[in-house]
Amino acid sequence: MYLLKFEPILKEVIWGGEQLCYFKDILPRRKSIGESWEISTVPNLLSVVSDGEFAGMTLVDLIKQEKANLLGKKIYSQDSDTLPLLFKFMNTKDKCSVQVHPNDEQAMCMHQCKGKTEMWYIIDAEPGAELISGFSKEMSEAECRKAIAEGTLNDVLMHHKVKAGDVFYIPAGRIHALGGGLLLSEIQQSSDVTYRVYDYNRKDAQGGMRQLHVDEAMAVLDFSYVPKEKMCKSVAADMSESVSLIESPYFKVNLLQIKSDREMDYSKLDSFVVYMCTKGSCLLSADGGEFVSLKQGESLLIPAYMSQLRIKSASEETKILETYVD
Question: Residue 2 domain-assigned?
Fold first, then answer.
């Protein structure tokens, strides 16, 4: 195997914008791209290898072929032929729906799949941009239903002003929504189960009201209050070479700042590693192999059996999100 890149899966949505096309250097420019699924084994949205010997092969087929060499022994024994995580770049021109996701137990019971815990890393934000994470006070199911019915749910949600470098961890059960004017990376469990709670009375492409899933949401919502200062972590502009962003049972995410050549040792890690480049560019070589480029807006998967990675800086400042399971 080798360092793997995949064809991005671009999704047009009513809240999407143009910024992803510029960020990823996609031509022709398109006006409503909200998501670029970078690495996915979600059914019907499978990533396809973009180059090299395995070009044209789906990630699922490649995992079936390479097994633990690609995923890691422990991960392969648990997840078999799927990647346990899903990686996206997102751009919101307009605000997204207010929503919630089930946990593993709930999702398995209702949908025979995994739940969805996720995290957001804000790459860029327009002045005044915000997002929603959690309730602004302790709530009950009855109070929440009443707020939805009366159109006052927005008044009891916790709004956060955001800037580049902000990090939010969204555990399953937490109510949340992205606001407009954001460019971000989303790293999550490999699940596409979403319960839409409120959508600002928007209509779909056919002119009908967008479907809500209130009853399903009530069954999985965490109505507790979490203080605002515990919701967000901010990365300083003068960060060190490596900063831990998230440590959870589902994924560990670090932000690497590449200012000079570096060597990474993954010999003691029993997991694949994914790099998402959020700024700049670099060259990567694994176990003495050929160098491959990684630039802003691109993602790359390092198979689990590879142990030594060399990084050559190709721009003045390069930032990479490093994700693995531990």
Answer: no
Cα–Cα distance for residue pair 62/79, rounded to 1 Å: 14
| Cis peptide bond upstream of 28, omega within 30 | yes
Cα separation, 101 vs 39, in Å, equals 20
Same domain, 26 and 159: yes
Query: In the chain, how many domains are there?
Result: 2
How many residues are present in the chain? 326
pLDDT of residue 201: 84
Do 205 and 229 have their domain in common?
yes
**Active site residues per annotation:** 196
Supply the range of the domain harboring residue 207.
9-234
Closest CA to 33 of 22, 48, 49: 22
Sign of the C-alpha dihedral, residues 73, 323, 223, 110? negative
- Residue 210 confidence (pLDDT): 81
Name beta bridge partners: 183: 91, 124
Residues of the chain under the 50 pLDDT cut: none
The answer to whether 100 and 174 are in contact (CB under 8 A) is: yes
19 and 167 within one domain: yes
Do 191 and 294 share a domain, yes or no?
no
Write down the pLDDT at residue 241.
Answer: 83
Instruction: Check residue 165 and report its DSSP letter.
Output: T
How deeply is 291 buried, as exposed, middle or buried, from its count of CB atoms within 10 A (0-12, 13-18, 19+)?
A: middle
| Helix count and strand count (H, E) for the chain | 7, 23
Q: Which two tokens stand for residue 98?
A: 């207010």
CB 280 within 8 A of CB 218: no
Domain CATH code at residue 255: 2.60.120.10
Q: For residues 199 and 279, state if they share a domain.
A: no
Report the predicted TM-score, pTM, of the whole model to 2 decimal places.
0.96
Same structural domain, 106 and 133: yes
